[in-house]
Specification:
There is one protein chain. Helix 1 (25-41) packs across helix 5 and helix 2 packs parallel to helix 3. Strands 2-1-3-4 form a four-stranded parallel β-sheet, with helices on both faces. It has a domain at 38-51 and 65-75 and 93-117 and 139-149. 43% of the residues lie in helices and 16% in strands. It has five helices and four strands; from the N terminus they run βαβαβαβαα. The N and C termini lie far apart (43 Å). It is α/β, with parallel strands linked by helices and 181 residues long. Helix 3 links the parallel strand 3 (79-87) and strand 4.
Length: 181
């Protein structure tokens, strides 16, 4: 039997999309900086005018999953990284947004076969969010590391079934991609 593990040595040939929620941009901009630092240190050209990373800004976390799924459906990317921040307030809005963005990102990955990384910081306070976006550590780095590893791993797994590069069997016809729309 074989052992498959993702590696970090193929980053120079991989393509990534990063979807960033604009709401709580004090946090998301720091997560993006950590993500970019990781990708750059692993040989990825992070220039928006380059050929390896595309950046998509959306209004908030609720919209992230829809865009991430469309990007994954395009089959242009080895992984999609979703970055956002939801900070608890005094209403149940936090719970609704967190639940839906979590389900949506998971569904986008499952439905397309493309790794879609959950990089949504969910905290009770702004202080906790800041700690996760750079004061203590920057989770943006971790999300990028996961994307690099999963992109590499999925390339290995796909090589087991040559010619099968689309979404999982049984999904039927999928909606048009951004390029077809």
């Amino acid at each position: 039997m074989a052992v498959f593990e993702g590696s970090f040595d193929r980053a120079g040939s991989q393509r990534f999309a990063i979807v960033i929620g604009r709401f709580n941009d004090l946090i998301t901009s720091k997560l993006l900086a950590g993500c970019q630092d990781c990708l750059k240190r692993h040989g990825v050209d992070i220039d928006p005018q380059g050929r390896q990373v595309d950046y998509v800004w959306v209004p908030g976390c609720f919209e992230i999953a829809t865009v991430a799924r469309q990007l994954a459906l395009s089959q242009r990317y080895d992984a999609v990284i979703c970055l956002g921040a939801v900070i608890r307030g005094q209403t149940p809005h936090f719970d609704y947004v967190c639940a839906e963005v979590s389900k949506g990102i998971a569904a986008a990955s499952f439905q397309t076969g493309v790794p879609v990384m959950f990089g949504i910081v969910t905290t009770d306070t702004m202080q906790q969010a800041l700690e996760r976006a750079g004061i203590k550590s920057n989770l943006g780095w971790d999300y990028a590391m996961s994307a690099l590893e999963m992109a590499s791993l999925m390339q290995q797994v796909r090589s087991l079934a040559p010619g099968v590069d689309g979404p999982p069997i049984g999904l039927g016809a999928l909606p048009p991609t951004l390029a077809e729309a």
